[in-house]
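ARCHIVE CARD
CATEGORY: sequence design from structure
SOURCE FIELD: tokenized fold
FIELD CONTENT:
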């Protein structure tokens, strides 16, 4: 069985290449040479390392791989993924790089097509992050055009569902005015994301990292709280340090960001597997919502999903549909109903309410299913188990735009 390691700072690209390579062997991702060595020690050998050209200190990494990772006595092959200027590339070939391939990896280009996949091996993609038992699934960012749109409500429930299903999920509250832990009914905290001010916090050991978290008893979701109004913003670097520290041990991370298009979003977007923009249906919020959605879509078109939260009737979706159509935004659009009863009861997170009794629970489960978060046995029923579950609402093919958006924004995407 071939063993491959992929290194990429962009979670989306990483996931895509891991998927491609998993047809040809066992694939791991790693963030340091130590983690690669751990993989080698566990697996016995490493056949090839795929190093994205966006990884810092590439030359140094290539040299270290040559020294530390060997298969049958000779060094593991190092392939670069991406683009690079010819001079730097020549230097890297000298350092031991075998070839450069475009993203996404084309197996024919790197000679993998000659090896047939082993049919007896598990075909499921099993991605281990250097450290045993952490399985990388999701890094989901929640953002919104303004305060009170529902980020914390939805992100905490999303985290809780993943935690219940996988036994392993973390919510990072990266909103300086955030109250995620309170929303989960937790009353006190001692540590917060502020502990991640310095770059070296990325390397904290597992024990220290766990000590900073509080646990939501009902679901097992871990929470890294916000400092709660002690600061006026969470610097992008701080949010990144926290994400990179916990990413080593947590496969599933949900991040609750501050409203607006923030520097923290700009920095974390590349690590994300999914980006969710939560907005309200009120017409006077539409302009702000569209501005935000346009920016998010420009920044990460493939990762973006939109949730219109607190819908009182289906018609309220129409203006935003028209907006998406006019700006050619193809991001999936879903909605959640206005649900005062569900939020009035304090016993359970609404998503855990019996779906037959709660439209909100049903619709949120359907959205999570659309995100690939589903488990028929546990928190989220499958479509067949839950025939009433609403489908994701696609942007309709051609609602005729009345042109008001053009007037409002002075430009229309082409
Ligand atoms: N679908 C809904 N129906 C009714 N009430 C809702 C719904 N979603 C959220 N709420 C309520 O709206 C309020 C704001 O929600 P929430 O705190 O999640 O927003 P937020 O985007 O995190 O706000 P902030 O930017 O201030 O952090 C809360 O009181 C919440 O209970
Ligand atoms: Mg919030």
């Amino acid at each position: 069985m071939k063993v491959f390691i992929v290194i990429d700072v962009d979670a989306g690209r990483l996931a895509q290449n891991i998927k491609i390579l998993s047809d040809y062997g066992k694939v791991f991702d790693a963030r340091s040479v130590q983690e690669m060595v751990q993989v080698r020690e566990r697996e016995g050998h490493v056949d090839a390392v795929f190093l994205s050209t966006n990884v810092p200190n590439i030359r140094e990494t290539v040299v270290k791989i040559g020294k530390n990772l060997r298969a049958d006595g000779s060094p593991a092959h190092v392939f670069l993924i991406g683009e690079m200027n010819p001079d730097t590339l020549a230097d890297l070939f000298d350092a031991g790089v075998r070839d450069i391939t475009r993203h996404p990896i084309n197996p024919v280009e790197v000679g993998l097509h000659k090896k047939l996949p082993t049919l007896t091996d598990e075909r499921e993609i099993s991605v281990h992050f250097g450290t045993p038992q952490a399985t990388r699934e999701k890094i989901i960012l929640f953002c919104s055009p303004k305060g009170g749109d529902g980020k914390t409500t939805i992100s905490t429930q999303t985290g809780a569902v993943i935690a219940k299903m996988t036994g392993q999920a973390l919510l990072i509250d990266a909103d300086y005015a955030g109250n995620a832990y309170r929303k989960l009914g937790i009353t006190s905290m001692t540590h917060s994301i502020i502990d991640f001010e310095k770059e070296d916090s990325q390397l904290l050991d597992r024990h220290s990292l766990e000590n900073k978290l509080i646990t939501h008893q009902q679901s097992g979701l871990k929470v890294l709280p916000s400092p709660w109004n002690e600061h006026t913003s969470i610097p992008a670097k701080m949010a990144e340090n926290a994400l990179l520290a916990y990413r080593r041990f947590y496969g599933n991370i949900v991040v609750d960001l501050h409203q607006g298009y923030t520097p923290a979003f700009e920095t974390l977007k590349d690590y994300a597997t999914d980006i969710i923009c939560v907005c309200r249906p009120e017409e006077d919020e539409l302009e702000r919502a569209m501005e935000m959605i346009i920016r998010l879509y420009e920044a990460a078109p493939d990762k973006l999903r939109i949730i219109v939260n607190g819908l009182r009737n289906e018609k309220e979706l129409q203006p935003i549909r028209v907006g998406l159509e006019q700006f050619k935004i193809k991001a999936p659009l879903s909605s959640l109903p206005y649900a005062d009863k569900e939020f009035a009861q304090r016993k359970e997170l609404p998503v855990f309410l019996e779906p037959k009794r709660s439209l909100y629970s049903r619709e949120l489960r359907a959205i999570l299913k659309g995100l690939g978060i589903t488990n028929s046995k546990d928190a989220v029923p499958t479509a067949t188990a839950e025939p009433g579950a609403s489908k994701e609402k696609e942007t309709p093919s051609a609602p005729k735009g009345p042109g008001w958006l053009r007037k409002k924004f002075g430009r229309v995407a082409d």
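CARD ANNOTATION: The pocket of adenosine-5'-triphosphate (ligand 1) is lined by residues 144, 147-153, 175, 178, 259, 309-310, 336, 338-340, 343 (CB under 6 Å). The longest strand covers residues 304-311.
SHELF: design records, drawer C
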